[in-house]
Write a structure and sequence with these properties.
304 residues; 18 helices; mainly alpha
Length: 304
């Protein structure tokens, strides 16, 4: 979806509405709103719709991946949160769909965080987690607990970006405790939440807190190949590249970005951190790597 790069949620909704040839009155009617409301969302006069409404819009426009509406780059299949995967609690879902709302919260939190809407991101993530909390010890479905753990980390990611060490690691600890409770063989597929990915998250927190030495020690303590999702593995390698970049280690930075590109080309192509680092490397290439850096820039679509 390269044509949507940099587009806000409203613009993306307009794109998909036009793609299916749907008028604003029709979309409004499908989601219980009017044409003027749809126009206000699409033009940015209204804030991003809340999570249940985003899910309704996605279903109305036949958008299978909620990330296509939020633009956060994380694959979030709508079916994973609204389909039959959690039929064991169907009565609860029919009432207010707590798992679906939590899944939407996870997707939307990243979009809000990446646009600097930090307090909203925290509110959304905590709200999604609260939907699940009454059921954590009552359901046999581990995915509800996995989603809760994923949301705890998303909350902690925000203070990490703001330099709040204690708060960030406090939420990481809560998420990690749940990952350990679920065990080393468990993985929440939509969010990749697992014990292995909690290690990758630890690298991210240290990078955000500008502690590259700690980030490298954590990264060296586990095998990135244990991350099953190629897209998630590529994002981890980009985070390791960020740590090397903070240490002004050009060759190692390039090596990690090269590995990320080999692992999942589309992930690095749409990752803002990777693109910024590549521009920096192209401006001052490591010794002997000028042609390699420029070749990687070409493949990623970065124009120095």
């Amino acid at each position: 979806m390269s044509g949507l790069t940099g587009k806000c949620t409203g613009e993306r909704i307009k794109h998909f509405r036009n793609r299916v040839g749907m008028s604003r009155p029709v979309l409004g009617g499908l989601v219980g709103r009017g044409a003027e409301w749809v126009k206000a969302v699409e033009t940015g006069r209204l804030q991003v719709p809340r999570l249940p409404m985003l899910l309704r819009i996605a279903r109305a426009l036949d958008v299978r991946d909620l990330a296509e509406l939020t633009g956060d780059g994380y694959a979030v299949p709508v079916q994973a949160f609204t389909g039959e995967a959690h039929a064991a609690l169907s009565a609860v879902q029919e009432a207010d769909d707590p798992y679906g709302i939590a899944g939407g919260a996870w997707a939307l939190t990243g979009a809000l965080r990446d646009t600097g809407r930090w307090e909203e991101a925290i509110t959304v993530a905590l709200g999604g987690a609260r939907q699940l909390e009454p059921w954590l010890n009552r359901t046999s479905d581990d995915d509800w607990r996995g989603m809760w753990g994923a949301l705890q980390f998303e909350v902690g990611y925000v203070p990490a970006r703001r330099g709040r060490h204690g708060e960030a690691w406090g939420y990481w600890e809560r998420a990690n405790e749940m990952a350990r409770r679920l065990g080393p063989r468990y993985r929440h597929v939509p969010t990749s939440f697992s014990t292995t990915v909690m290690n990758a998250h630890a690298v991210t927190l240290d990078v955000e807190l500008r502690r590259p030495g700690d980030a490298m020690r954590t990264a060296n303590g586990f095998d990135a190949n244990e991350i099953p999702s190629l897209a998630r593995r590529s994002r981890h390698l980009i985070e390791v590249a960020r740590a090397h970049h903070q240490r002004h280690d050009g060759p190692s930075t390039y090596a990690m970005l090269y590995a990320a590109e080999r692992t999942a080309p589309d992930t690095i192509r749409f990752n803002g951190y990777a693109r910024d680092i590549l521009l920096s490397l192209a401006a001052a290439p490591p010794t002997g790597l000028r042609d390699d850096v420029h070749a990687l820039c070409d493949r990623v679509g970065v124009r120095p």
